[in-house]
Structure formats: C-alpha cells, structure tokens
Amino acid sequence: SLNDNFIVKGNNLIALHSIKEVYRGKIKLIYIDPPYNTKGDNDSFTYNNSFNHSTWLTFMKNRLKIAKEFLTKDGFIAIAIDHYELLYLGVLCDEIFGQENRIGIISVVHKPEGRQNDKYFTATNEFMLVYASSKASKFNRVALSEETLNLFDLEDEKGRYKLKDFL
Fold first, then answer.
1. 70 and 27 in contact (C-beta within 8 Å)?
2. What is the DSSP secondary structure assignment for residue 101, as one 8-state letter?
3. Closest to 133 measured CA to CA, from 69, 66, 62
4. What predicted TM-score, i.e. pTM, was given to this entire model?
5. Which pLDDT tens digit goes with each residue over 33-65?
6. Given phi > 0 = left and psi -120 to 50 = alpha, else beta, which region is 25?
7. 55, 135, 124, 141: which is closest to 83 by C-alpha?
C-alpha cells in the first residue's frame, strides 16, 4: 500500500521506472540528496562524486523527470546541492518543473566555521532548491514549536518574521 515503507536496492533510475505505475501522481513531497559532483570532495559518502559535467546533468535530468511523474498536482520537490552545481541544477529544474513553479532556494548552514579545504571562499552552507509540481501547490505556514513561532515578533502582509543581525 502507499503507506508502506520500503528500500529499493539497485540502480535508482531503473527502480524508479519499475515503481512509477504504482506511485505516479501519489507522492506529496520528494527530497533528493544527489551527488554534489565536487570532484572528489566526498569525505562522508562513497558514491561517484566526480562525474563529467555533462554526464552529471544527464544523470540528474533523467532522475528529476521521473521524480516529477511521482508528484501529486499539489506536491513539492526539494533537492540538496552545494555551490558547485547550484546554478546548473537551477536551470535544469526550471526546464523540468517550470521557472514559475520555483518556490525558492534555501541556504542551509551546515558548518559555520567553514570547510578548510575550500580553494577561495570558505563554504559554510549548502542549498536546497524547492519546486512545486504546479500552481495548485500551497505552502502551509509551518513552525517547529510555539517557542520558535514566538521568535517571529514582527508581521507584514506576507506573514510573521524576525530581524536578525547579518553576522
């Protein structure tokens, strides 16, 4: 049933194609954490992290196109990525999901002190691209807790917010 959890072992593209008839149009949220293609900066995973650039784009395009088929009409997809392929992935997602369905690009701070092996700038964050499957998608207001919600002490026509020092 749709509420079951399962693990698919094998090539993920083949696996996605094998289950698409059952799950097409039934998934509300997809989260993808693909290889960042950082040319060997893969100290935590052992998957291929050094694709040829065009090979990586093809790898992603094939998986994103099939992922789109799984989404409900009001669904979302969130894709983790770092700065190395961010701009290319954004253009690819605009092509597949439609630029008008881009909800936003979220900056996720994961290492405030920065990575010591960066060549120019010390990266402190990664990104998450969020796309809606269609204009029917509605993004609900979300707060992790009442305590967190109370930190947002200002409000305008778009909702509650808080001010924070840049540094």
1. yes
2. G
3. 69
4. 0.74
5. 888 776 654 444 445 555 677 888 999 999 999
6. left
7. 124
